[in-house]
Input
Amino acid sequence: MTISNMTPGDTPGDLAVTALGGDAATNLADDQELASFGYKEQLSRSIGGFSSFALAFSMISVITTVFTLFAQPFQTVGGIAIWLWIPVIGGVLLLALVYGHLVVRMPLTGYAYQWASRLVGVRYGWFAGYNAFLCQFVGSAGIAVALATVFAPDFWPNPTHGDVILLATIAVSAAVLINIVSIALTARINNIGAVVELSGVAIMLLALGVGIFFFHGIQGPAVLFQVGSSTGSPIDVLSIATALLLPVWTIGGWEGSADLAEETKDPRRTAPRSMIRAVSISGAAGFLLYAVFAMAIPGEIAPVVNSTSANPMVSIVESHFGVVAAWLVQGIAFVSMFACLLANVTVAGRTSFSLARDNMLPFSRLLSTVGRRTQTPLYSLLFVGLFAIGVNFLSAGIATQVTGMVSVILYVTYGLTLVATIIGARRNRIPDAPSRYFGLGKWLLPLCIIGTTWAIVIIACMTIPAASWTVAAYTAGFELAAVLWFFLVLRRRLARGTAGPTIDYTSGDELREGGTSWADA
Output
């Protein structure tokens, strides 16, 4: 680019790349953009467009959630739960649009923490960042225990909670090790996982979608309007809220593309596209996958969805196509679940690194250490693994409790981020961006208000019903830890100017009260 074709919002860093071209120009501009926020490039900027999408798609991982929770809607309200996917897809797509607007203007690792700190203040930013941090850490545990729950019967005839925890621990350890080696290796493996999942979903939809016209004794389209629990329990607000958990947890994690902004080439162009595409494709795939498997249920619904000896979706495939096809489906599910875990560990490690880089966590100096050769946040990744294993022990291997916690914390993060955006917009603190990048313009505030309302509704559904009080108690305990850390330690660090972001991008002012580097304090 040259000065003559600059567009409004171009930064001084754009001028420095006039004589360069290709990836060198893009990476230099990205590094200069990062420096304008007060940080130097420490991580490896090697994630391209497909890898960014694959990360978001793998974190959503339609197969991971649908395989784990397929029976739940039938056990609560019946096949009619399929229609709950539509409002969830719409609500999440709205959130992705707002996140796309923000990442264009603040492409920083530690997205929720960084955005909220700069739009509202560092104290508010701590709680937004902590919830993102907690969601990803607990999410790693939830995905691991989901994988272990589905596949433990393939290793043990009658797996115990201990067996499930052991398998989950092995999976977490493998994901952490791959992440430590390099982001390039992680991206390559995750890309393979995303391709396998996309292909697997397409094959299953095609095979069962065609098959329902020829299978005999199946539920057929009528199941999509079937009302009634397979367990005989009454349908009430609680059961509807529980059925909502499947699409809510399925379409989550797409924001991982924003969290890896500092490792993404041209993140202001790449990250918004990745998030919006991942939500759109995953939402449609989840809806169709649930629908065709529901229609293909052979015989009565209850024996299939209430079985404790086999995964319902595997049983459906086996009943129509045989044992070999069932094993193939299990293989696709395993690859997809591990890719989901791998991506979640990646993102969790980066959020931990971002908070530690600003001295917001205990042992921040250690957690912000980046390996010279690997260019990965070594100790933050190890911390993810230890935390995930610990949560699995705490949850006694019960996947639904861990899953429920993730859903609540995820929507707390969404809500806090959208409220910060509303405040930032009214204070005129949201940075400008070149017009060639994605932006919502006048639609930003209305979408934020609708999205905040949506987040409150989901949080209420996940916490108010009596059966969800255990999940609410777990969540409250973790939130209390954030409050205690803030008042006992972090508040003093912020007052001394030894924690928090250093530069306010919108004004060039120091954000820290003392204006000093915590590393030198």
About this structure: Residues 55-256+264-496 form a domain with the Amino acid/polyamine transporter I fold (CATH 1.20.1740.10). The two ends are 41 Å apart (CA to CA). The mean pLDDT is 86. The chain has 21 helices and no strands.
